[in-house]
Amino acid sequence: MATATKKKSKVKLQPLGDRVVVEREESEATTAGGIVLPDSAQDKPSRGIVVCIGDGRLLDDGTRAELAVKEGDRVIFSSYAGEALKVGEDEYLLMREDDILAVIEG
C-alpha cells in the first residue's frame, strides 16, 4: 500500500477498497491556432497519473481483488469521475477504479 505525501505537508492519503487517487494533467492553455485561453474557458482534462491505490475490492469470500492499475500509470477517466480534494497546495481526484476507462501505455 502506498500513500500520497508531500514534503511540506504531513498529511497522508490512503484510499480504501477499490478507490484510487489521481493527479489530473494540466490543461492546454493555447489552441492549435495559437489563441490563449483563460482558465474559465479551458476544459478539465480527463487524463491523469495514478498517485496511490487502495487494497482492492472486497469479494464475497473475504479476499481482495487486485486492482488493474498501479501507481504511476497514466489513465483516461470519465469527465465527471471522482471527488476533487485538496491536500496542501495540490489537487487530486479520488475515484473508484471503475471510473477509469483506459491506461495509456508508451
Rg, nearest Å: 16 Å
Order of helices and strands: EEEEEEEE
pLDDT below 50 for ≥5 consecutive residues: which ranges? none
User: What structural class should be given to the helix and strand makeup?
Assistant: mainly beta
- Binned, the helix content reads under 10%
Largest sheet: 6 strands, antiparallel
Query: Can you tell me the overall shape?
Result: elongated
Strand content: 35-45%
Number of domains: 1
Number of strands: 8
Distance between the ends: 25 Å
Strand order of the largest sheet: 6-7-1-2-5-8
The CATH class is identified as Mainly Beta
Number of helices: 0
Name given to the CATH homologous superfamily? GroES chaperonin
Could you explain the architecture of this structure?
With 106 residues, this protein is an all-beta fold. The chain has one domain: Roll (10 Kd Chaperonin, Protein Cpn10, Chain O). It contains no helices and eight strands. The protein has strands spanning 19-24, 47-53, 57-58, 64-65, 74-77, 83-87, 90-96, 100-104. Strands 6-7-1-2-5-8 form a six-stranded antiparallel beta sheet, with no helix packed on it. A two-stranded antiparallel ribbon has the order 3-4. A hairpin with a 5-residue loop joins strand 3 and strand 4. The protein is elongated. The mean pLDDT is 82.
